[in-house]
Amino acid sequence: MYCIYCNKLNSDEAKFCMNCGVALMSQGHPAGKPAGFWIRFFAELIDIVVVLVIANMCATATVPLLGLSIGISNIPHQAVELTAMLVAAFVISFYEIWMHVRFGRTLGKMAAGIKVVTVKNEPVTYKLSFLRWLGKMLNLFTLGFGFFMIVLNKDKRGVHDYVANTKVVYLATKK
After folding, report:
1. Percent of the chain with pLDDT over 90
2. N or C: which end of the chain has fewer CB within 10 A?
3. Is residue 2 part of a domain?
C-alpha cells in the first residue's frame, strides 16, 4: 500500500509507513487496487480546471513579453492566438508529464487519492510519463474510446496505460 504522504510502497500488512512512519489505513478501497473510470474522470475534471487556469495565465503573460499584441504592432491577431495556443499546449503537456514523474499524480489525482505507477508498482519515469501523455493525445483522435477501455477491462487500464505500461491505483491514507 502506498503512503499518501511520502508516496512509498509498503506491504499490505503494514500499519505504519516504513519510510516516514505515518499510520496507514485504507480509504474504502484497498491500497493498490485499480482505480475505476469515474474516480479517474473526477480527477481529470479537476486537472482540466487547474491546467486551463495555469495555461491561460502563462499564455496571457507570455504574449506581451514576446512583443506580440493586437493593435500595438503590425503582427496579425492569428500570430498572437497561435503563440498563446502553443504556450498553453506546452503548459498542459508539462503539467501532465512532470507531475506524474515528481509526485506520481496530478492535483486531481491527489484529491481523488489515486496514483500512477508502473505495472510493477514502481514510480513512473519521464519516458513512461511522456508515452502515457502521448497515449492520452491519441485517445482524443478516437473520440475517447481509449478512455472507455478503463470500464471494459478488469485491470481498469486505458489505452494510454497500456502504451506506457502503467496503471492507476488507490493510495492508503492517514488514520
Report:
1. 47
2. C
3. no
DSSP percent split of the chain into helix, strand, coil, nearest 5: 50, 10, 35
41-70 pLDDT per residue, tens: 999 999 999 999 998 888 888 767 666 555
d(CA 70, CA 98): 33
How far apart CA 75 and CA 97 sit, in angstroms, is: 33
Instruction: Assess contact for 43 and 37: CB atoms under 8 A.
Output: no
pTM above 0.85, yes or no: no
Domain count, the chain: 1
- In-domain check, residue 10: no
C-alpha cell, 51: 491546467
Amino acid at position 24, single letter: L
- Which pLDDT band holds residue 17 (cuts at 50, 70, 90)? confident
- Is 17 inside a domain boundary? no
User: Does residue 30 lie within any of the structural domains?
Assistant: no
User: What per-residue confidence (pLDDT) applies to 174?
Assistant: 47
Query: Which SS3 state, helix, strand or coil, does residue 25 take?
Result: strand
What are the cell numbers at 38? Answer: 469515474
DSSP 107-156: HHHHHHTEEEEETTSPPPPHHHHHHHHHHHHHHHHTTTHHHHHHHHSTT-
Q: Which amino acid is at 173?
A: T
